[in-house]
Amino acid sequence: MTLSGTATDPPRFLAPGATLGVMGGGQLGRMFLHAAQQMGYFTAVLDPDPASPAGGVAHHHITTGYLAEAGLAELVQRCAAITIEFENVPAAALVTLGAQRVVAPAAASVAICQDRMLEKAHFASCGVPCAPHASIDSAPSLAAAATAAAGLLPGILKTARLGYDGKGQARVSTAAELAAAWADAGRVPCVLEQRLALAREISVIVARGADGAIVHFPVQQNLHRDGILAVTRSPAPDLSVDQQRQAISAAERIAASLDHVGVLCVEFFVLEDGRLIANEMAPRPHNSGHCTIDACDQSQFDLQVRTLVGAPLVPPRQHSAAVMLNLLGDLWFLHGSAPVEPRWREVLALPGAHLHLYNKLDARPGRKMGHLTLTAAEPSAANAVALRAAALLGIAAF
Questions:
Q1: Is the predicted pLDDT of residue 163 greater than 80, yes or no?
Q2: Is the preceding omega at residue 235 within 30 degrees of 0, hence cis?
């Protein structure tokens, strides 16, 4: 079976009963499978970890590497359409799969999101501003970026590829610190971004179909700690209507210009002067969108299924205000070196508490073990209950 079509020729619908595949077995894949199975699809996961969260709920778990010919062949044999769980799936694997099955998003869209320089160039091509920056891939480019004329210090050095959750990043203030940070990164290609005065961080999640139809969720406001998302509030409490419109419009332009099919999250910085600056994007569902499972009539994972199978995209509606708390493995080690289960019973006694644990076998500091969403009729009520939950779990107030 295939999906095909243009903006004037709607894509063929892949009906429930077909098998959908996902490259990657983490928690995002797990939640995609839950949505697909609820709609009546069979599922398959390719992930080398036999204990992967998604593999544990899939109908078929293919435990090979992402470039293994036998694994890719089995995924093609079993599946009518295939998506991704994380953006660092090897592009070569997506090209191989895309030659034989519908793959959404396509390799070309994913490749741009895998490289910070390509990503920033794409933002610019869409007329979406990003932080002043320079590419560093050699001693001369390092020296040029460190000059006063470049105006990039103090800044943040980021590896061009494979950076996430604050990994592959270093704050630098001087030329000497920049040189040392690049050496520590292994002298791989990097991007130096000027450090800006930020008021807050937000994200916009859109879903785009093969026919060009596009829908979006309300703008979400995020709090990061140590480079990892800690808290998301939806709808965003501190944005003007104009800022929300700007962010949604920019995210939709970016998705359309990528010819992206699937879910796309664009993260923005809101500067102290009110301007919006694009930070990065993810060609998949995003941590900041987890609250859509409990606060909206369709989740980001429901829309990932719809875009993959060619189902109509109906604008999602948010029926509850929500605050999402990211649950890291640190919560198991608040009282010493031996893991202790958090206070789930007391948390589940709170009104509007929705606990999502990913069935990861071992809790480790910094590891994403789950998330907790608190919903209420009003944002202030959701926020109040979320603060109570945070206190019970040992999460710092926000």
A1: no
A2: yes
CB 230 within 8 A of CB 224: yes
Yes or no: say if 300 and 289 are a contact pair by the CB < 8 Å rule: yes
Asked if 266 contacts 204 with a C-beta cutoff of 8 angstroms, the reply is yes
Maximum distance among all alpha carbons in the chain? 61
Cβ contacts of residue 357 below 8 Å, gap of 6+?
Answer: 327, 369, 370
Q: How far apart are CA 156 and CA 167, in angstroms?
A: 12
| Alpha carbon distance 158, 189 (integer Å) | 9
The arrangement of strands across the sheet holding 102-103 comes to: 60-62, 42-46, 19-23, 81-84, 102-103
Residue indicated by tokens 């930070």: 279
Rounded-to-integer distance, Cα 284 and Cα 374, Å: 23
pLDDT, tens digit, 9 for 90 and up, residues 289-340: 999 999 999 999 999 999 999 999 999 999 999 999 999 999 999 998 999 9
Going by the DSSP 8-state scheme, the letter that residue 333 receives in this structure is G
Strand partners, 193: 133, 156
- The count of other CB atoms within 10 Å of the CB of residue 261 is 26
> Which of 310, 255, 300 has its CA nearest to residue 81?
310
Q: Please provide the average confidence, as pLDDT, over all residues in the chain.
A: 94
